[in-house]
Amino acid sequence: MLGFGHTGAGQDIVKGVLNNYLSLLGAGQYSNDGFSVDVEPLYNEGGVPVLNNIVQDTPDHQFYFKYHHSAGDSMSMMDPDDMDSNVAGIAAMLYILADLDVSLRAPTYEHLRR
Questions:
Q1: Is residue 98 a part of any domain in this protein?
Q2: Does some domain include residue 114?
Q3: How many Cα atoms occupy the beta-carbon half-sphere of 74 within 13 Å?
Q4: Quick check: is 109 in a domain?
Q5: What secondary structure does DSSP assign to the chain, as a single string?
Q6: In a domain, 89, yes or no
Q7: pLDDT by residue (tens digit) across 95-111?
Q8: Under 8 Å between Cβ of 9 and 105
Q9: d(Cα 48, Cα 10) in Å, to the nearest integer?
């Protein structure tokens, strides 16, 4: 794992966590693009800040898409060290964010009042 992409409020917080903590794991890279098809509705419809992990791949993501939703899309295709790195990085990021005294965003609940 190389770092995180992020979209939404709290950019300074995410960058701080990456620089101060995750960089020690070699996962301090930041991108201002946290969108993916799976989480985009959370941001677009609910204003929830979204993250995605940055992993080593070809620039056009062909390694990922070669296997994604194919017969070869199985855990056996994963490098165990890469999987360990992703689990450690994601767990560390979420633990640190949850333990902070500040939030990535102030809840407005406006999207629930429709």
A1: yes
A2: no
A3: 3
A4: no
A5: --EEEEESS-HHHHHHHHHHTGGGGT--EEES----TTTHHHHHHH---EEEEE----TT-HHHHHHTTSTT-SGGGS-HHHHHHHHHHHHHHHHHHHHSSS-SS----GGG--
A6: yes
A7: 999 999 988 875 555 55
A8: yes
A9: 11
Q: What is the pTM of this model?
A: 0.79
Domain count, the chain: 1
Residue 9 has which token pair? 């409020």
Q: How confident is the model at residue 63 (pLDDT cuts 50, 70, 90)?
A: confident
**Structural domain boundaries enclosing 84:** 3-104
25 near 88, Cβ under 8 Å? yes
Whose structure tokens read 């800040």? 49
- The amino acid occupying position 34 is G
Rounded to a whole number, what is the largest CA-CA distance in the chain? Answer: 45
The two tokens of residue 108 are: 């407005």
